[in-house]
Structures are given as C-alpha cells and as structure tokens.
C-alpha cells in the first residue's frame, strides 16, 4: 500500500472514531431519533442526484437502509443519549464482527475456523468486562442498546454481502435515503413534535456542524474513501485499519468530552480488539455442499474474497 493510501486508511479510521464524539455533542442539540434522521437526510441530499442510479436491486437498498439506518443507528443514538459513553460505544460496536461471523455461518454457510471461534470467545470476554465496568458506573440498559445496534450491524453486513454493490459510495448514498422517513415518524411518536420543533428552532452553528460531519465527512467521505481502498487493495490489507476506530473513538472522547478510561475499560479494549482481529483477519471456511455446487467463476480467480464486516463507520 502506497503512503498516500496508508494515510487515507488511517484518516478514515480517525474520522469514524471521532464521529462518536461528534454524535455525543450533537445529542446535546437534538433528540436522538431526530438527529439520526437529519444525519441521513443530509447524507442523501443532494448526493442522490450526483452518484447516479442505484447499482443493486431496491430490495437490498431498502433492507440495508432499515436494518442499518433505522435499527443500528437508531439504537446507537438512543443508547448514547441514555448515557452510553461515546468512547465505550465506539469500542462495544466492534462486536458486530462476531455477530457478522455467526449470521454468515447460518445464512451463507461460512463456517468459522478454530482461530475465528477463539477470536469470538476473546471478543465476548471483552464485552463481559465492558459490561461489568459500565454496570458499575453507568446505565446497563444503554449498554444493551449498543449491543443490539451491533447485532443489527451484523445483519446489515450480511445483507450487504448478499447485495454485492459494485460501488460502495453509490450504495451508501441510496441506503441513506431509506431511513429518513421511518426515523422521523419514530421521532414524532416517541420524542414528540414539540421537542423536535424546539430543537429545530434552536438550531445553531454547532448543531449544524455535527449534522454535516456525521453525514458528509463520516458517511459520504468515509464510505467513499473506504470503498476506493477496497477496490485498489486486497480486503485483508484494508480491513485491519478498522481496528483503529475504537482507539480514535476512546482517545477523542477522553480529550474533548473528558471521559475517563478505567483499567477495566482498557482491559475490555484489549480483549475486544484482539478478539475482533482474530475473527476478521482469518478467512472463514465454506460448507462442503456450497463448494460442490458453486459454479466456477474464472473472472474472480486470484481476487481476495470480500468480507461482510469490512464496512464500518
């Protein structure tokens, strides 16, 4: 990987890590579901008019939009609003790699190797340590919401794998158009029109900045740059950089939000990042039945297999 691409990969990981701190700041300006809806609205418009028509079937765009946009990000924003720290959220969400591997084993018949299975156990141990730490110092319900968001992320990863979008940026922009109305409806039902209107009337430069950062910088730039790297380099070369996301997430939260990092949290980080590394960097084994029936595709010879968990952010 050339130095410019190396720096780009680190920059994307930094953007996705700092994004959690920006979300925390934005939650001081907006109710969580309204904030999530505005994020996707800004990511979709005007980009949908610039990226061209969708390159995959609408069923995949709608499915990923609902699972990733409504379920995953809805739970993340609500969980953080309920007291889940930004840095810990960036760390705990990485358990999505374990959910992805388990779901892929059930749906895609990608059997985990022994090293992957060990990685899952290590990552789950890290989640257990993080739960003990958060249970002693914060709301456990908010922690469980972020775990639920990671599970939804795992489902969306497998759906994305099935969709196999040829253009990551095009796919993400169109996916961003799906959650806007469902999230707005949920916000009106649960947060109330009065609270939503009050937040919009009080909109200032800082609130606007948080929307633009999570929409344009984290989503549009982040996924566009990540997709470019995956097109130019093997997935096994690009994927490890995603392990830097919680490093930047916890560091930025400590620096800008004053979040403390306890010894238990450091232990959880070491276990979770190490377990995710074992899970994501080791190829899964495909079932024998699938290998026997899969048609030969010589045009893919020599190309590293795409992994569902490579989309993060």
From TrEMBL:
Chain segments carrying region Disordered: 287-313
Protein name: EamA family transporter
Classification via SUPFAM superfamilies: Multidrug resistance efflux transporter EmrE
Cross-referenced InterPro entries: AA-Vitamin_Transporters (IPR050638), EamA_dom (IPR000620), EmrE-like (IPR037185)
Similarity comment: Belongs to the EamA transporter family.
Localization of this protein: Membrane
Stretches that traverse the bilayer: 33-51, 58-80, 86-108, 115-132, 138-159, 171-189, 209-226, 238-257, 263-281
One Gene Ontology cellular component: membrane
Keyword tRNA-binding appears in the UniProt entry: no
Membrane topology type: Multi-pass membrane protein
Keywords, alphabetical: Membrane, Transmembrane, Transmembrane helix
Domain EamA: 6-129, 143-280
Pfam families: EamA
């Amino acid at each position: 990987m050339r130095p410019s691409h190396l720096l780009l990969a680190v920059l994307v990981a930094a953007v996705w890590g700092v994004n959690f701190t920006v979300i925390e700041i934005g939650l001081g300006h907006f109710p969580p579901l309204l904030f999530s809806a505005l994020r996707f609205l800004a990511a979709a418009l005007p980009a949908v008019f610039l990226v061209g028509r969708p390159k995959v079937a609408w069923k995949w765009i709608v499915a990923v939009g609902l699972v990733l946009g409504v379920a995953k990000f809805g739970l993340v924003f609500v969980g953080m609003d309920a007291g889940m720290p930004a840095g810990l959220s960036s760390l705990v969400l990485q358990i999505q790699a374990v959910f992805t591997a388990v779901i892929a084993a059930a749906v895609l018949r990608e059997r985990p190797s022994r090293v992957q299975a060990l990685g899952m156990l290590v990552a789950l141990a890290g989640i257990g340590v993080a739960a003990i730490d958060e249970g002693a110092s914060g709301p456990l319900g908010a922690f469980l919401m972020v775990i639920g968001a990671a599970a939804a992320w795992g489902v969306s990863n497998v759906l994305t794998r099935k969709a196999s979008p040829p253009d990551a940026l095009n796919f993400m922009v169109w996916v961003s158009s799906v959650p806007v109305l469902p999230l707005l409806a949920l916000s009106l039902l649960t947060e109330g029109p009065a609270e939503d209107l009050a937040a919009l009337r009080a909109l200032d430069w800082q609130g606007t900045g948080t929307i633009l950062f999570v929409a344009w910088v984290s989503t549009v730039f982040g996924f566009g740059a990540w997709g470019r790297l995956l097109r130019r380099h093997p997935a096994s070369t690009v994927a490890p950089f995603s392990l830097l996301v919680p490093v930047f997430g916890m560091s930025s939260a400590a620096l800008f939000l004053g979040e403390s990092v306890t010894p238990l949290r450091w232990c959880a980080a070491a276990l979770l990042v190490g377990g995710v590394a074992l899970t994501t960097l080791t190829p899964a084994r495909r079932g024998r039945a699938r290998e026997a029936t899969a048609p030969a595709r010589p045009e893919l010879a020599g190309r590293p297999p795409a992994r569902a968990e490579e989309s993060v952010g």
